[in-house]
Predict the 3D structure of the following.
Amino acid sequence: MGDGDNMSSSGSCVKPKIIIIEPFYGGSHKQLIETLVECLNPSDYEIFSLPASKWHWRARTSALYFSQLIPPEHEYKVLFTSSVLNLAELIGVRPDLVSCRKIVYFHENQLVYPVREVKERDCQYGLNEILTCLAADIVLFNSNFNRSSFLDNVQPFLNIQPDFKLKHIRERIEKKCQVLYYPIKFHAFPNKRHISPASTSPSTTPTEQSCLHLIWPHRWEHDKNPKLLVEVLMELNKRQVDFKVTICGESYLAVPEAFDGIREKLGSKLINYGHLTREDYVKTLLTGDVVISTAGHEFYGVAMLEATYCGCYPIAPNKLVYPEIYPKENLYNTSNSLIKMLYNWCRNPEAFRRHRDKFFDFFSFDRYSAQHLVPKYLDKMRI
């Protein structure tokens, strides 16, 4: 969809009953909507969206923009949107939408978004989310961590206000809150555990197969902590263990400073660097051994679960959403413990692969799968 698009799902004269509004139509926000509407009757919904760029301006002005775009004559019964939209502003200037069942989905929350310095924080974004919750009927979070970190910080966040106190806001929001994991279409992925090694990488030699392939598939932004990744890779390289690494994920205009010179420093060990097409991304995941998160900000982690489904062993910080999803032995507490874990495995790939096989014997993807979750979403959106 182009800038300022709305997509009517049907050319018929029947007016849609569901309005879907997404101010940041890209990445996981776009994937969620596409996954849900696949299971809706095309005549039942209409999508209003803006491209996934200029996030701060989307959060500030998209409510005003959509208030002008949404037709005044409609039969909407359900409104589904993400927390990027200031729902309170939209309802304020379009009171005809107030009768809709208003469902807000939190992919993340701004109350605990990490900033390099406290003075950088713009409190308006967090306040927008609080007001949106107050205007909504149902507030969905993609993890228990997202829900609890938001609710636990409502009052501390409001206490920043200097000359009067806002009370009992959490209580008004909490009763609307539910957790509904983000639905991942695992059924659209091949699964390495059901594919012979020859079919996934026919050109690899026995030596290359034994060398561990590490994958970091995250957005190239400071909240994903690329600096820690580089520190770990440089230390592994210094210790002269054999490995290869893919650094992919969404990259924006500015390449993280931590990545300066990394191609020269890692040489042939860096086999993929930069954004991959979806097809190449999946092929790369299927050749991976370990998927690494160094995030300082994560409420779910779609890329980690996708890579894990494709056969990569997940390693993540022992914080944020990760203890909710992965076993204790997959989590690290310090950079040193991450380095030690990877160093030992790179030295003994066969022992690592036996360990990985045991992980997949008991780890279940069902509760994160679209097949399991989409019916729960549709139940919330029922007309």
